Amino acid sequence: MKPGAFVAYPVATICLILACSAESRPFDSIVKSFNVLSEQSPLREYIMAKPEGQVSAGVIISDVIGKTQNIAIFSGLTRDIDAVSGRLDDAASNATVLAPDNSIMRDLKRKPWEDPEDYKSFGENAYGGSSGEDRARKNLERFVQRHIVPESPWEEGKKVKTLAGNEIWWESKDGQKKIQPGDVEVTSIADKVANGEIWILGGSLHTLRPESSNMTFEPSDLAVCETCGTQYDVPLSEHPITCRVCDDPRQYVPASGQSWTSLHKEKDLQKNTFETDEHDSRIHYITTRPLTPAELPPGLSDSTTSRKQLGIGERAILLQTSSGNVLWDLIAFIDQATIDFINQRGGLKAIVISHPHFYTTHLEWAEIFNCPVFVNKDDSEWLNREDKAGCRKSVQGVTEIGEVNGEVKFIQAGGHFDGSSFLLWEKKLFIADTMMSVPSGFINAHRVPDTVSFSFMWSYPNMVPLPPTKVHGIWKALKPFEFDSTYGGFPGQYLTRPDLKAQVLESMKLFLKGAGHEKAGVYEETL
Hints:
This protein is α+β, with helices and mostly antiparallel strands. It contains 16 helices and 28 strands.
C-alpha cells in the first residue's frame, strides 16, 4: 500500500495493523478497536480488488481479508478468535468467509459480544469483571464463527455447518446469492484465493444459534459398561447381567466384577481433555479422565472409591481435512464441552470406527453431530444397539469416505477382529490397535537388529498373539498404500520416519520368528 493510502483509507489501515498483530488482544482493546472502526465514515471501495471469478494463486485468506475496506470491522474481529485466525492462515484448510458489510456491523441492534439472555440472567452488568469478560469473549467467538463456513468451493443448496455449529446453505434468487435460513444477501465476492473465498453480506447471521441438539445436550440413561464403554439398548436400571464385549476372550471382566453406569450418571464424574497434535495442527486428540477430588461437585467424595476413566482409555482423533472433519474412533463419554470443541472446528462430516472395542456410544455421537458412522460389516455381530435413525454405514474392504470427497480411506485389515481397520489420510496411517506401536519403536536413532516397532495381537490385554495368516493379511491390506507416520489408539503412540512402512513389514517377520513360526507367507513379502 502506498504511504498516502494510510491517510486515504483509515479503516483499512486500522484493519491491516490489527491483522498483522501476532497475539490476541485484551478484550477492552477489542471493544475500543470495534468502536473506532464503527465510527469511521463509510468506505465502499476495495483495495486490490480483482474481477469476480479470478483466483489469487499462492495467496490465502489471511493475506487478503484485511485489504477490503468495507468489511474492515468484521475482518478486524477474525484475528481475535484463534479457531478462526488459525484456519484462515492455514493453506490446507479451506473456508468461505461470510463477512458482513461495515454498514451492517454499525447497525447491529447489539454488539457482537452481547446476548440478551446474559442481561436477563446477570443484569445490566452482565459483562463486568473477569467472568463477564469471559462471557463476552465467548459470545464474540460465536458471532465470528457463525460467519465462517469450513468449506470452499461451497456448492449451491449444500447444507453445511459453520464453525459455530449452525446449519446454513445458499441459493440463487433472481441472480443473487442468498444465505439461508434468513435470506441474507451476498452483495459481492471480495476475493477468491488458494484456500477459499470472501463473500460480502448485506446482513449478518447474528441471530442464528446452533441447533438445539448442540445447545442442550442431555446425557442418556442407557446402560454403559464401565470397563469397555459399550452402550446397550436398555436403561441403567435394567442393565444386562454381563457385558458380552468384556466376556469375549479379547477383553476382560475386572477382578472387582462387572459394573454398569450411564452417560447421565457419569456427567459429574468424568471429563474429556483436548490436545492438538504438536506436528500437525489439523489433528486433535480427545481422551477421557475421571475428575479429581477438587473438580468434583459438592457432596461427591472421592475418598470411598477408586475411579478410572469410563471405558478402555483410548482416544478419539479429530481430523480436519480440507473437505470437512472426520472423527476416527470413539470414546464413550461425551458432554457439552466436547460438543462445543468439535463444533467450533466445523462439526463432523463422518465418524469412522476401527473395531468393536471402540463402538462405545457411537449412536449418541451420530445423533448429536447429525453424521454417519462407518463400521465394518464383518463385525456387525458386535453391534449392541438398534440403529433406528439409520446412522450406520456398514462397509468392507477399502472404502473412500465420500463425505469428505474421498480424502480419507477406511482400510479393512482383519486380525484383532475380522473387520479391524486402518484409516489413511495423506501419508498418515491411523492404526487403532489393528497393530500396536511398541516402546522399542519410538527411539530409532541407534536401532539394533531384531528390534520391532509394532506388535500384532488377537488380544492385547490378555497378550494372545495373532497367527501367521492374520499377520500376513494385515500386510496384504497395507501393501498398496504409502505412509510415513502412524497414530495409535492410545496417547503417545506416534511414529514417523521415511522407512516406516518397511519397519512394519520387518516387525511382522520378527514378531512371527520370535513366536517360533518357521514358515509364514509374510516372510516372502517385500515392499
